[in-house]
Design a protein that fits this description.
Elements lengths: L1 H16 L3 H19 L9 H16 L6 H6 L1
Helix pairs in contact: 1-2, 2-3
């Protein structure tokens, strides 16, 4: 439970700021996968719709990475 709170609070803030975006997506992908497949029994349409949408968004962020206005890019320059 505490790891889920960490993922949904701190990792989400890291993603919004653009700090360690790809690394911060991993705990959120795990949390949303557990929420979708364990808590909602894999029902993409219905109760698990929000978890499925967030999971898809976090997977997309994992592949695309942070944008131009991120802290990671500012540190790298």
């Amino acid at each position: 439970m505490s790891l889920t709170i960490f993922a949904e609070l701190f990792c989400a803030v890291f993603i919004v700021v653009g700090l360690m975006t790809r690394l911060a997506c991993i705990p959120l992908i795990i949390a949303m996968s557990v929420a979708l497949f364990y808590s909602h029994n894999g029902q993409i349409f219905g109760d698990g719709e929000h978890a499925a949408l967030y999971l898809a968004g976090y997977i997309a962020l994992l592949f695309t990475g942070p944008g131009k206005l991120s802290v990671d890019r500012m540190i790298g320059k």
